[in-house]
Amino acid sequence: MALHSAVSDITARIAERSRPTRSAYLAQLQADLTRAPSMDRMGCANLAHAVAGMPLDDRFKVVTERAPNIGIVTAYNDMLSAHTPLQSYPALIKDEARKHGATAQVAGGVPAMCDGVTQGTSGMELSLFSRDVIAMGTAVALSHDMFDAALMLGVCDKIVPGLLIGALQFGHLPTVFVPAGPMPSGMANKEKARVREQAAQGLVGREGLLEAELKSYHSPGTCTFYGTANSNQMLLEAMGLHVPGTAFVAPGGALRDELTREATRTVLGIIKSRRFAPIGQIVDERAIVNAMVALLATGGSTNHLIHWVAVAHSAGIVIDWNDFSALSDVVPLLTHVYPNGSADVNQFQAAGGTGLVIRELLDAGFMHEDVLTVREGGIRDYTREPALAGASLAWHDAGDSKDETIVRPVAHPFSPTGGLKLLQGNLGRSVIKVSAVPDDRHVVEAPARVFDSQEDLQLAFSAGELECDVVCVVRWQGPQANGMPELHKLTPPLAVLQGKGFKVALVTDGRMSGASGKVPAAIHVSPEAAAGGPLAKVRDGDLIRVDALTGELQVLVAQAEWAARPLDVMPAELRQRNGIGMGRGLFAGMRERALTAEEGALSWM
Q: pLDDT class for 514, splitting at 50, 70, 90?
């Protein structure tokens, strides 16, 4: 199938726009590739330090036999259920490497925080910039510069983008990402959402709410809704950076262990075959577009409108929200996974999973097939699913959808367009995820109620002050203001209001969770209020129009009055609070330097 003309045109525009920065990136990659092998360029003391902690046999392989040496960067901790299984991975990787005459070392660990734990707390104000800390930690780990390849162990929200950004600084290395898989299905997502909404109304107490949450999040593995963590895995499959079909295989068991070993064999295979597949070459403009298409076709996390801009930048590629929006206009929505539907990722996997989606997109011309991947068979390998055949792995075609309420072919999608819309107007530029929003809620026009924090909105809801048509404006939530926390705690009260029949929308310069749901939310508003953005002009009672059909985000105030209206200043107590306590002071430099959300909220430029 020929590539869809819009996908071709958008890719060409990205390539042309990125030509200077991509050329500079590839020049650096080539310079790194042409250096002498690490054994020749490292001093004797440097080398001795590097191998001192290795078993004698491994030391001999590295120093005397000059065997390939894999650097492992791990985000393991047992605070994150999704990362708990990673504890055993280094031992498996080292054992498999030895079987193939190679060695592996844990080059370093990176921090990994759980947004589920920190939602609605001050810790969430560190979350976005933890991505950049992880990227720096990855660079520190690989800076030992004695590795022939790398394996990246990580799953969740900021961790995968951070690992990817860091790995791209060492673009000359063959690199494979190694996930852990989702936990078994717990309480049905619709039931969990219902209990949360009841709790927001005071109809369910803490004990009942806690019982529901413990039934939902109950074992090692990734949370089973299609939020940022699971969107990460979809995008890595679409970019060809996984062992094919690895994303949603459950943790534990022989299949998962064998896939981890296969990741080791895959990265060693690139070296031994002398196939030119370093990560910086794999992640080109076509791979980035493939990831964007996969995100849109699955109704994935809005967080990636920030993260993948930063990832692309790290490979010298320049993308923006216009590109996402233009792709969304033509890419069909193929899945309904919570919060876009009721199914979880285990049910998605059983219905056909990543292999079916990628095959459909390739066959219909929505993805580039002529791309480099970590597998010699290219991106077509990612249309197949793994299984054990005895003690070995075998791949089979994903086949047709087993449940078309969850995943559909391109021929009859859930929607002919993707789940994303760019909004713009006199309130700035923003994005809205409409794939989970009821059709009759795609346009909301109502008076504004302005809040300086999510806590203030929750208090107003509890006091019964929001029982009306309302557009809730929550400002001072951008990267420069407080690190751009997710405001997922606002979903239940706003959903309650919408459920009562009121027209409700959220407008904010903050983020929503990757689990953004049925309430229309204009998020990531740029420029943010703290940087002099127009949200700082909005007053209670201003009529605001959020229109996902026409792409408008407007305050309906006379132009002359709006131009003359002064900007509010971020309250001093908020600014002071953001700078102290719970580690926030250490991130002050990142907040000061942060670019806009549309520019990836980069803090290192």
A: low
Mean pLDDT score, 484-499: 91
The predicted-structure confidence for 140-161, as pLDDT tens digits, reads as follows 999 999 999 999 999 999 999 9
As a whole number of angstroms, the distance between CA 600 and CA 251 comes to 31
Torsion angles phi and psi, residue 178, rounded to 5: -125, 110
Q: List the alpha helices (DSSP H) in 169-320.
A: 189-200, 206-216, 228-239, 253-272, 279-282, 285-297, 304-314
- Where does the pLDDT of residue 194 fall: very low under 50, low under 70, confident under 90, or very high at 90 and above? confident
Same domain for 360 and 457? no
If asked whether residues 493 and 552 sit together in one domain, one would say yes
223 marked ligand binding residue: yes
Distance, CA of 63 to CA of 42 (rounded, Å): 11
pLDDT tens digits along 351-396: 999 999 999 999 999 999 999 999 999 999 999 999 999 889 999 9
> Strands across the sheet with 103-109, in order?
103-109, 69-74, 149-153, 175-178
DSSP 242: S
393 and 430 co-located in one domain: no
How many angstroms separate the Cα of 526 from the Cα of each of 423, 480, 534?
11, 11, 9
Range of the domain at 367: 5-35+67-184+219-397
Do residues 284 and 317 touch, judged by C-beta distance below 8 A? yes
Which is nearest to 427 in space by CA: 531, 319, 552?
Answer: 552
Mean pLDDT of 325-340: 94
> Does the residue 51 lie in any domain?
no
Name 444's bridge partners: 546
Q: Is the residue at 194 inside a domain?
A: no
Instruction: Please give the Cα distance from 93 to 344 (Å, whole number).
Output: 30
In a domain, 204, yes or no: no
Task: Check whether residue 386 and residue 457 sit in a common domain.
Answer: no
The whole-angstrom separation of Cα 542 and Cα 551 is 19
Q: What is the mean pLDDT of the chain?
A: 94
Q: What is the per-residue pLDDT for 78?
A: 93
113's enclosing H/E stretch is none
Q: Is 172 helix (H, G, I), strand (E, B) or coil?
A: coil
156 appears as a binding residue in the annotation: yes
In a domain, 477, yes or no: yes
Best CA proximity match to 444, nearest among 328, 552, 534: 552
For range 66-82, the mean pLDDT? 95
Q: What percent of the chain has pLDDT over 90?
A: 82
134 & 12 share domain: yes
- Tokens at 85, concatenated: 């299984």
Tell me the residue type at 415.
S
